[in-house]
Structure formats: C-alpha cells, structure tokens
Amino acid sequence: MSPGTAGTAEISAKPLDGRVAVIIGASSGIGEATAELLASSGARVAVVARRADRLDDLVVRIEKTGGTALAVAADITDAAAAQAAADRVGAELGDADLVFNNAGVMLPAPIEQRHAGQWQHQIDLNVTGLMNVIGAFTPQLVQAAGSRGVADLINTSSIAAENLFPGFAVYSGTKAYVSHLSRHLRAELGPKNVRVCAILPGIVGTELQNHVTDQGARDWLAGSRESIEWLQPGDVAQTILFLAALPPRVNLQQVTIMPTGQTS
C-alpha cells in the first residue's frame, strides 16, 4: 500500500469503528437521533427504551443504511430490568464502551400545586433510572476501558441544573443531581480510563414538551418557541459524537449546548 493510499484509508475510516454504544431513551428525540448518528459513524448500537415498537422501527432504519443495532425494551426505573439490558448487550454485542444515559421526563408545575405523583415520576426516571443504568453498565465500561484504552459515560443533565426557572424546581433539582454526580463519577472512573461527561442542553424540540400538563409552563414554552429557534435533537447528537471521537486523553467534564437565542 502506498503512503497516499494509507492516508486515504485513515481519512475514510468511521470515527467510532469497533465501539459498542448504548443509547438509553432511544425511542424518540435526542436518543433516537444519537443512535442513528453513532451507528452511521461505525458503532454497534444498543437502543434501550420502553416502547419496543419504536425501537424495532429504529433498528430497521439503522440496518437499512448499513449499521448494526440491537433493540432492548426495558424500563430502567426497574433495577433488574436495567441489569438484564446490560447483560443482553454484553452477550450480543460485547462490553459497552459508550453509554449515553439520556432517558428523562420534565413535568414542571408550581410547587404549591403539590403534584406529588409528578414529582415522584421525575425522581424515579431522572435520578433512580439514571443510577440503575450506571450500576448496570459501569462494570462493562471499566472492562472495556481496560482492554480498549477508553470508554465513555455521557449523562444528560440540563441548563435547568444551573439556572432558575419558576415552576421547574423538581425537574431542575433532578438535573442538578445529574451534573454533580457526573463530576464525582469522573473523579472515580477517570483514573480507569472511563471518561464521564454531563451535557447540559437548553431547550430542544422533543417529546419532552408534550408531556407538560401545567398550563402556565405550556404557555411559557409556546412563547419561547415563537421567540427563539430551539435546538434540534440532531444538534445534541452531533455533540455526543464529538465527545466520543476525541482522543482518549481528552475528557470534557461538562458541555453546555444552547440555542443561540436562549439567554438563560
């Protein structure tokens, strides 16, 4: 092979060739877009969510474009289900070396309305579900990092973890947990070559807004959509690819990605 041919081969190689990526919350929005992008970039992807039909459709799309994907229907608020998902990924694709921990729900409302069920739902998914995934997949990440030299755990937080949005107290609290937890996990896992990053998106146009029941929050979101151009799921997916494709020595601890017109 001539030097010129070798250079062409290196340039054309897909940036995530050989990697095993797990996308949690892959049935829509950011997770769905990220799964398609990482698969097109060479990763074998496991797509995890509750809605099996959507996962099956996603796998078909990925495979039609030459990618490799595995659908794993699981409710990650159940620790046993999260562990079963991890076991299946390990058995069928090999140890995960990239986990995008992206499932979440946003249900804003004034605290005085005392929507305890909505509070608990957000805590169950945004905190407990997140921890179930971390508990299930960390052994694989450590193992993969030991053999391949690098692995990635990327947790989805939110700009709401840092800024103040009336009515979003519980949601913001769960996302502040994600951000601070990620910093601690980086201190633990970084020496084992597992990079940990929290991403903090501003407003992204996904199903998340459709779940909001409080009229005041719905009005605020509608006004925001009219005044600024929201991020799209693919924008965040590109950020995940960028993080995963960095040289193993480079770990961005936290990445904030905002619509240009969103000031806070």
Q: Round the mean pLDDT to the nearest integer and report it.
A: 93
Contiguous runs where pLDDT drops below 50 for at least 5 residues = 1-10
Strand content: 5-15%
Largest sheet: 7 strands, parallel
N-to-C series of helices and strands: HEHEHEHEHEHEHHE
Helix content: 40-55%
Give me the number of helical elements. Answer: 8
Please identify the structural class as seen in this structure. Answer: alpha/beta
Structural overview:
This protein has 264 residues and is α/β, with parallel strands linked by helices. It is built from eight helices and seven strands; from the N terminus they run H-E-H-E-H-E-H-E-H-E-H-E-H-H-E. A seven-stranded parallel sheet has the order 3-2-1-4-5-6-7, sandwiched between helices. Helix 2 links the parallel strand 1 and strand 2. Helix 4 runs parallel beside helix 5 and helix 5 packs parallel to helix 6. The radius of gyration is 19 Å and the shape is globular. It starts with a helix and ends in a 7-residue tail after the last strand. 43% of the residues are buried. The N terminus is likely disordered.
Task: Describe the secondary structure blueprint for this structure.
Layout: H1 3-12, E1 20-24, H2 29-40, E2 44-49, H3 52-64, E3 68-73, H4 79-92, E4 98-101, H5 116-148, E5 151-156, H6 169-189, E6 194-201, H7 215-227, H8 233-245, E7 254-257
Parallel strand pairs: 1-2, 1-4, 2-3, 4-5, 5-6, 6-7
Characteristic terms for this protein:
264 residues, alpha/beta, 7-stranded parallel β-sheet, 8 helices, 7 strands, globular, disordered N terminus
